[in-house]
Amino acid sequence: MMEMVEKNQITIPNDVIYYSLDGKELSKEQRKSLSNDLPFADWMIDSDSVLVKVQLQDSDKVRIAQKSTPLLRNGARDINCDNLGGLLQNIYLRDQDSRADNLNVASIDEANLTVVEQILGKCGMPAPESVGKLGYSAIWLVIQHASADKRKKYFPMIKKGLEDGLFEKQDVALMEDRMRMDDGQPQLYGSQVMMNTDGTYELYELQDPENVDARRKEMDMGPLAGYLNFFNIDFNVPQKE
Length: 241
Known about the structure:
Layout: H1 2-6, E1 17-19, H2 28-33, E2 42-45, E3 51-55, H3 59-68, H4 85-100, H5 106-123, H6 128-144, H7 148-163, H8 169-182, E4 193-195, E5 201-203, H9 212-218, H10 224-229
InterPro entries: DUF6624
């Protein structure tokens, strides 16, 4: 709808009435304060392309619905294994945008996972010339954000992709830590933290903490203390040389 406005494809009279979520008429001041929600509103237009009414909607629900919309109308039949770059770019953007917007992302993750599984099922791990670096980032993110059984299912493909130069060492490290946490085992690289009820963070159980930086170095990761500073977690375990 905003695209139609920008292209002057609809007429917007001065007396258009704007309504809140609960159906109350909005003042001009209220409209200004809610301007970020207007792209997600219901815009009612008459047969002459004149805007008659604007009804605000729950913008989070609308955005979740938009980002959960299937990317493939006909499932795997729409997948071209030789040209996956655009499709995986859309998946990457939907994953990252939804988290940046603090949306409830479960339905978005599920929609993205459906497409990635269709790609891997039909094409296997895509060739570099068909996806590019961003495409592999999309595949990794979707699997990392999926359920424990999906991570376990596709982890061998991620490890094989590392051997083939498609993924980074830290991609494997982060997923391995996540899988060990799934199974109730101590993590190896210290990538997994937990949020407490008071909003603070703590490091999930770590195996052999005296050697964690050596393990992280092998996976092209920096010292753990620097990473944990972001979460205001102190890590003072002396490291073995």
